[in-house]
Amino acid sequence: MAIWLTENSKIIVQGMTGGEGTKHTRRMLASGARVVGGVNARKAGTTHEGLPVFGTVKEAIEKTRADVSVVFVPPAFTKDAVKEAIDAEIPLCVVITEGVPVHDSTEFWAYAVSKGNKTRIIGPNCPGIASPGASNAGIIPADITTAGRIGLVSKSGTLTYQLMYELRDFGFSTAVGIGGDPVIGTTHIDALQAFQEDPGTDAIVMIGEIGGDAEERAAAYIEQYVTKPVVAYVAGFTAPEGKTMGHAGAIVSGSAGTAQAKKEALEKVGVRVGKTPSETARLMREVMQSR
């Protein structure tokens, strides 16, 4: 089992004909993902990487029955691309693009809500979602782990890859990189809920980082609704106050949003928190070995 992305998912790529879109379309195809076409209004009716290019997301869905879109569109055009996917009511839209203005992210997130939340947005500025052995939508390497029964949700792309690799002998049901921007479509809580309900997931790794209160809100959700074991890591224990670190959302102001405060909130509800990624992997290994 997996969440949101399965072996039956049919993927289209908005921006497939660009450099990044081409590279990662090839990688997704090589991993066995069912990529069925691309979208580029200027190149509609042509083929690229052996796949048809459509003028609109709506046309792509009508012709291929696609249910996932991966967006590799420059930041200036990302808002319109995502809104087009929402209008077409594609169930899952994975926004890889980095540097999307927060105002634009806010606008397309609100637009999705206004349209009845028929489209789940993951990202922006994220590595995507991978269900090892089943499908891969985004830029997560397909060969660093195996299929298994750990669910992973992470703000950080590189830490997603590290935990997937370190726990490759146990494997993952699905790994979701939600992105670290201040406004994102899918949150830790969304993924926690889905993993809690997924019979193919036995335990959950949650990776957070300094800034905001997403991890504290996730801790409150875990306390009330999650019965599966959760192990967490919070990046940024050594970050200086007031400095943006890596992601646009990773900034500490006063005592709010510190790694220590997040660690304490999570541990208070029974989540084991590692001080390093490798310690986090060791904690999850202990959880899985005890089951």
Automatic annotation (TrEMBL):
InterPro entries in the record: Cit_synth/succinyl-CoA_lig_AS, Citrt_syn/SCS-alpha_CS, CoA-bd, CoA_lig_alpha, NAD(P)-bd_dom_sf, SUCC_ACL_C, Succinyl-CoA_synth-like
CoA-binding domain location: 4-100
One Gene Ontology term from the biological process aspect of the record: tricarboxylic acid cycle
Keywords from the UniProt entry: Ligase, Nucleotide-binding, Tricarboxylic acid cycle
Catalytic activity: GTP + succinate + CoA = succinyl-CoA + GDP + phosphate; succinate + ATP + CoA = succinyl-CoA + ADP + phosphate
Pathway: Carbohydrate metabolism; tricarboxylic acid cycle; succinate from succinyl-CoA (ligase route): step 1/1
Annotated residues for binding of CoA: 17-20, 43, 96-98
Coiled-coil regions listed: none
Domain of life: Bacteria
GO cellular component: cytosol; succinate-CoA ligase complex (ADP-forming)
PROSITE patterns given in the database record: SUCCINYL_COA_LIG_1, SUCCINYL_COA_LIG_2
UniProt record similarity statement: Belongs to the succinate/malate CoA ligase alpha subunit family.
Record function comment: Succinyl-CoA synthetase functions in the citric acid cycle (TCA), coupling the hydrolysis of succinyl-CoA to the synthesis of either ATP or GTP and thus represents the only step of substrate-level phosphorylation in the TCA. The alpha subunit of the enzyme binds the substrates coenzyme A and phosphate, while succinate binding and nucleotide specificity is provided by the beta subunit.
Record-given protein name: Succinate--CoA ligase [ADP-forming] subunit alpha
